[in-house]
Amino acid sequence: MVGKEGIGSRMFDLLNIGIMLLLCVVMLYPFLNVIAVSLSNSEHILRGDVTIFPRGFNIGGYSYIFKDPFLYSGYVHSIIYAAGSTLFMLTFTSLMAYPLTIADFVAKKFFAIFLVITMFFSGGMIPTYLLIRSLHLLDTYWVMIIPGCISAFNVLLFRSFYQSIPADLRESAVIDGANDIQILSRIYLPLSKPLLATFALFGIVGSWNGWFEALIYLNDENKYPLQLILRKYLFTVSFGNGAGTQAMQAMLAQLKMDPRNIQMAIVVIAMFPIMLIYPFLQKYFVKGVMIGAVKG
Amino acid sequence: MAGLRTFFGKSWNQRYLFLMVLPGFLIVLVFSYFPMYGIQIAFKKYSAVRGIWGSEWVGLKYFIMFYKDPTALRVLKNTLLLGIYSLLWGFPAPIILALLFNEIKNSVFKKVVQTISYLPHFISTVIIIGIVRTFTEREGLFNKIVSLFGADPIVFLSEPSWFRTLFISTNIWQGIGFGTILYLAALSGVDPTLYDVANIDGASRWRKVLNINWPHIKSTTIILLIFSVSGILGTDFQKVLLLYSPDTYEVADVLGTFLYREGIIGARFEYTTAIGLFQSVVAFILLVGANLISRKVSETSLW
Asked: Any idea which UniProt keywords this protein has (chain A) (predicted)?
């Protein structure tokens, strides 16, 4: 790419930079706007002139939301569900993938086919719901942790990662008298740390952002994850009209608050953990997509 | 007999391996295979007391009901149209962006833009739609833009004609950056000497994209296209569920949301299981079909 570049080529570079800057604005603006609105007062929110800086600084939304016990309960439950499902996913996936790498395992082919079938066929939403109901798992913590924790795709990915570990390592461990559980925990897992980290992050983010399972399997609001509390504030609670909300409106007016203060405050609170680890997160996610692509 | 004995002997020697597979096996058996067994209620009059097996067979009753139900047909049509439009607009977007990323010369700038473009991918659907709601309000950003053109404010969320645009454009916004990763990986495999040779030949940048970059991402594109085509009925109904309202059902109601409303809320288990089965059969046919066509046309296929 040295030397003479046509004027057209240079024009394109400029245009491309312009497109990229526009892209950054489009990607970032909504988030900055959410933060700004959460910190502005009702006058400016109603006029709709808040952009990326708060106007008429107001933290009423946050002080309102921090008084709601459901916020804390939602946070705690989201952490329980994310930690639980990720822990079980990593444990059972790494256990299940290991025997599938061993050439003379008698049931290797059976289990591989058993898994692959689930990649093409599934029972669907309603039969799964009926099953969960008949197992009396509705409204339990387990329903948020166990049913989704094994995916055939993950097991096969783990298997192909293990296969890149030299077989000599296992053979010499066998000669030294180690059993397979020891080989997995002392040789394979330490060598799979990057894989485990990547899938831990996949699992945590997926669980943190998920809400539909909770919607259909949990009726007890005391067990709701944060996303459902968020949904309640954003979609079902109406601050603006209805008979019971007059006191609420008076309170909001007195504090120069708009319902959107509260709504955007809880959005900020829900995004906070993801944003905090984002630089780290995105690096591992990119890595994870690559691992998936090599295999898939 | 001797063969059987060695089989069991070997199995006993490998008992640790069986033990390791066991938890995963049980979870998949219960939560993936039992629901498949449950599909038979699509052909039965389901009674919770008598169980799935004990319920009475009714043949194709629910499939005929589906065929005659105008709401269900509208739902099918909506699903298909939303899927096709999403594919048409959403599929090329990350390819174009990846090619543009690839033309950025400053590697720091490139890295920064990429990192920013991935951000929306990590945000939950509930938050995304929450933001869409505030942007589409009367005094929201979108109506500010509308008023720049001197038009009257639009009630976007109750306007059926805006539903697909909102749904697809937010999908693109959320997925375009992250969707470039696989294409960029393919582009990083381009041998730089190819560009040098092209420069000597005096090739324009557009020529280089067409003759060097495109052939490198072609097989990735085709594989992703096969997945997208087979997923055409698999709308992200969780997002629809947050975005739609009875005002927009006429275009927004899709199979997933219909199954949720009629099945889970309305407890019409047999009927919705039948529709779900229909949906998975069609998805499977589409996958096999797309793969077959791709193998014929481009010699790229999944299996």
From this structure: Cell membrane, Membrane, Transmembrane, Transmembrane helix, Transport
